[in-house]
Amino acid sequence: MNNDEKNIRKKSPIQIKNKKAGFEYFFIEEYTAGIVLTGTEIKSIRAGKASLVDTYCQIINNEIWVKGMNISPYFYGSYNNHVAKRDRKLLMNRNEIRKLLSATKQTGYTIVPLLLFIDNHGRAKLDIALCKGKKLYDKRDTMKEKEDRREMDRMRKHF
Questions:
Q1: What is the pLDDT of residues 65-109, one digit of tens each?
Q2: pLDDT value, residue 135
Q3: Residue 142, Cβ neighbours under 10 Å: how many?
Q4: How far apart (Å, rounded) are the C-alpha atoms in residues 99 and 109?
Q5: Distance between CA 53 and CA 100 in Å, rounded?
Q6: What is the sign of the dihedral through the CA atoms of 25, 29, 35 and 41?
Q7: Residue 10 pLDDT more than 70?
Q8: pLDDT band at 138, cuts 50/70/90?
């Protein structure tokens, strides 16, 4: 990921994060994918009514799908409102999908969504990562590092 891509994410008014992913997994490789959405789904995302809690990606028939992503029904939607927790197809390069498929065949590796954002052109994008699950002792180390960083910040503010 280059600096231009990071700046787009920082400027995006909508940034829905999967906060639990950093605690549960080590990120091996990150990708950005487009999402196939219906009309009311993009309106709900622009309103910030989406959640990445308990989401994961799965490769089926050389296509990558995000499962468990909750996009709340649009408030002003009528009878043609969308289903909140349906499977949504991700748009990625064929070579990237093949690479992810071969990596996920190894035990302990999975694909997890990290961030849902709107790009400069008004399209919804999803940052996903190839991840390896953390063991309990790794999670303890992560918690200790986070606590140490907080303590250091408190000390800096105090002096």
A1: 999 999 888 877 777 777 778 899 999 999 999 999 999 999 889
A2: 87
A3: 15
A4: 12
A5: 21
A6: positive
A7: no
A8: confident
